[in-house]
């Protein structure tokens, strides 16, 4: 029982990890076919995972509606929206328009989904502005440099700023292409090294949290 629950998943993970890591260094038709087959299986598994996730979501909100917990009305709206969209999508074969005419599915997407997404990002703008206000306080020399650079970039990215300060656009572009690019590369290198280290830990069984029981 312990072998099936612990040892076997670790063994499968190690074999699959080493196999597909080595696949990138073996330019052979058999290796490419293996990757293509694995990609198709990942898509199939992803489809089942999507069904499982939607089922779990429905179950969770159904329990909330049944018990009349706080905010159960939002769960009812979620139910109605998801079921209605699924029904309309199936009826329209998932197409937004047919012969140039917008379908009900296209109407839902263009006049409900898109405005909701715009509203979500508009709300996020206030949180970003609040975080920027707290971060850009010139409490030290480094914070002052960050504040000045942020002001130059923001002024150079809007037409009004370029009109008031003609050189702000060129300076802003230089900051983004030179200073910011070098920092971004360093961060990406660090993230990549961290991903490689984590992959090795998972492949060799050091990291076992995905099994649900930590390292034990």
From TrEMBL:
The chain crosses the membrane at residues 7-26, 41-59, 71-92, 112-133, 145-165, 185-206. Keywords: Membrane, Transmembrane, Transmembrane helix. This is Uncharacterized protein. It comes from Nitrospira moscoviensis.
């Amino acid at each position: 029982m312990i072998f099936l629950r612990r040892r076997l998943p670790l063994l499968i993970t190690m074999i699959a990890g080493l196999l597909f890591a080595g696949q990138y260094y073996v330019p052979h038709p058999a290796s490419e076919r293996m990757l293509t087959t694995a990609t198709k299986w990942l898509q199939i598994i992803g489809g089942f995972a999507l069904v499982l996730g939607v089922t779990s979501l429905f179950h969770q909100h159904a329990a909330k509606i049944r018990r009349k917990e706080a905010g159960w009305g939002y769960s009812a709206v979620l139910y109605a929206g998801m079921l209605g969209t699924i029904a309309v999508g199936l009826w329209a074969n998932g197409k937004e328009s047919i012969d140039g005419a917008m379908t009900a599915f296209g109407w839902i997407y263009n006049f409900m989904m898109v405005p909701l997404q715009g509203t979500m990002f508009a709300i996020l703008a206030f949180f970003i502005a609040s975080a920027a206000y707290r971060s850009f306080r010139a409490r030290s020399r480094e914070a002052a440099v960050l504040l000045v650079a942020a002001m130059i970039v923001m002024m150079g990215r809007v037409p009004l700023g370029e009109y008031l300060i003609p050189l702000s656009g060129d300076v802003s572009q230089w900051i983004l292409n030179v200073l910011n690019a070098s920092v971004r590369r360093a961060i990406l290198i660090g993230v990549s090294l961290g991903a490689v280290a984590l992959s090795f830990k998972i492949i060799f069984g050091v990291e076992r949290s995905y099994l649900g029981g930590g390292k034990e």
